[in-house]
């Protein structure tokens, strides 16, 4: 071992190597700081007088599977200018840390391929220490997410945990990165984001979101030049809710026992995309039986299938025609729930058809939300909520199975 290896191997520079001890399978390096290297930690002045010392130890990256610790007497100095007595700064470790910067870098490198638990186990330290290293790194990188270059965004809310807690997440559709995580849902959750976005002077072209009034109002207020694109998954989801309402209504009205029996248990069949029905479990047959027996249900079901086709249209003009004709058929169906839905679509037609100008959706956010849920199930969030939120900002860097 040498002073030079300490520098090149572990990034410990400006200290003198003293000796190596092997204690119970661990490696201990002793080092010292040359007298002429002492500086005031406040003003960096070399005009200091030594006033005692404190022995401190720091973890280094392991050598093979052996733990490595470095130990040294850290001098306290009195500065002639500042007139205070302080411990000198440690060049190779951050203040108040018990590990070196090289150890933190190594732990972060491992974190790209392993869970926190794996990294902690491999390095022979506690889970909390690895979490602390990750948190410091995330804080440094995501304290201020630059917003200036944002052009197209997706906004959605996600419920986390069992206590009805919500987060509102904003995604940069170009990079796939989360650019904001707001507490709660609705317009309040996004208030801090709008303020920062405005200050950044970003030229937002389009925002993908659902048809909620709160979002519509906020976007038109804060981003008057941005186009709203209503997300097609959300629209189909909304239609599915209406379809469920209709089925329930029909079930209530059905008087014959047999009729009821056919309707019962068809809720999921109606909501599923037909290509996903399971033939082995007779799902297509059961769906057909329910539709055959009930004309309004069949009408609504096939209108849903047709509505999904809207987003397959080649261009804006064709899509507009298609939407108009769909709404006309829904109005003509005589089914109140469908007529109301056609009204909603007409009211939001511009934002729906904007899809054909920007081709964006909240779909990419769906993947992010799934990762957030996985993380949440691994019970990060509730012990350290700030860490949980920071992990969300970094989620696009993480492979799905390793988010823990
Ligand atoms: Zn000083």
Structural account:
There is one protein chain. By secondary structure, this protein is α/β, with parallel strands linked by helices. It folds into 4 domains: 2-98, no CATH class; 100-143; 152-231 and 361-397, 2-Layer Sandwich (Nucleotidyltransferase, domain 5); 232-358. It has 17 helices and 10 strands. The chain has helices spanning 3-10, 101-111, 116-123, 127-142, 187-200, 213-222, 232-253, 257-263, 267-271, 283-293, 295-309, 316-332, 336-347, 349-353, 355-358, 363-377, 385-393; strands at 16-23, 26-32, 48-63, 66-79, 85-87, 152-160, 165-172, 178-183, 206-209, 227-230. Strands 1, 2, 3, 4 and 5 form a 5-stranded mixed β-sheet that branches. The chain has a 5-stranded mixed β-sheet with strand order 8-7-6-9-10, sandwiched between helices. The chain is elongated and about 95 Å long. It binds zinc ion. Zinc ion is lined by residues 40, 42-43, 45, 79, 81-82.
Would you summarize the structure shown here?
Helices cover 47% and strands 20% of the residues.
Low-confidence stretches: 400-404
C-alpha Rg (nearest Å)? 31 Å
Q: Beta-sheet strand percentage?
A: 15-25%
H/E element sequence: HEEEEEHHHEEEHEHEHHHHHHHHHHH
Instruction: Name the helicity range.
Output: 40-55%
Number of helices: 17
List the bound ligands: zinc ion
Terminus-to-terminus distance:
37 Å
Mean pLDDT comes to 90
Number of strands: 10
């Amino acid at each position: 071992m040498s002073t030079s290896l300490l520098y090149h191997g572990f990034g410990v520079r400006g200290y003198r190597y003293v000796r190596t001890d092997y204690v119970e399978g661990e490696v201990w390096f002793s080092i010292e700081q040359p007298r002429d290297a002492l500086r005031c930690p406040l003003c960096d002045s070399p005009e200091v007088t030594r006033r005692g010392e404190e022995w401190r130890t720091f973890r280094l990256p392991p050598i093979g599977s052996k733990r490595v610790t470095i130990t040294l007497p850290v001098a306290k100095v009195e500065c002639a200018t500042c007139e205070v007595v302080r411990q000198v700064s440690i060049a190779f470790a951050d203040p108040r840390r018990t590990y070196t910067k090289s150890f933190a870098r190594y732990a972060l490198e491992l974190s790209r391929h392993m869970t926190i638990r794996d990294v902690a186990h491999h390095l022979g330290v506690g889970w909390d220490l690895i979490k602390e290293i990750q948190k410091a790194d995330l804080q440094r990188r995501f304290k201020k997410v630059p917003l200036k270059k944002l052009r197209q965004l997706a906004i959605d809310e996600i419920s986390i945990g069992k206590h009805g807690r919500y987060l509102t997440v904003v995604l940069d559709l170009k990079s796939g990165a989360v650019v904001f995580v707001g507490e709660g849902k609705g317009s309040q959750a996004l208030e801090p984001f709008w303020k920062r976005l405005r200050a950044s002077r970003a030229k937002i072209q389009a925002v993908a979101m659902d048809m909620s009034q709160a979002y519509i109002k906020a976007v038109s207020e804060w981003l008057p030049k941005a186009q709203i694109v209503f997300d097609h998954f959300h629209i189909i989801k909304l239609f599915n809710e209406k379809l469920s309402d209709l089925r329930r209504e029909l079930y209530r009205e059905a008087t014959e026992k047999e009729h009821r029996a056919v309707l019962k248990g068809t809720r999921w069949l109606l909501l599923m995309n037909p290509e996903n029905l399971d033939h082995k479990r007779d799902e297509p047959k059961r769906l057909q039986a329910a539709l055959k027996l009930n004309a309004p249900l069949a009408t609504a079901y096939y209108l849903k299938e047709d509505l999904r086709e809207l987003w397959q249209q080649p261009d804006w003009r064709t899509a507009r025609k298609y939407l108009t004709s769909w709404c006309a058929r829904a109005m003509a169906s005589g089914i109140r729930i469908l007529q109301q839905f056609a009204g909603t679509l007409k009211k939001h037609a511009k934002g729906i058809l904007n899809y054909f100008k920007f081709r964006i959706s909240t779909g990419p956010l769906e993947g992010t939300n799934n990762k957030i849920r996985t993380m949440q199930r691994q019970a990060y969030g509730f012990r350290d909520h700030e860490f949980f939120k920071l992990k969300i900002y970094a989620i696009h860097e993480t492979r799905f199975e390793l988010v823990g």
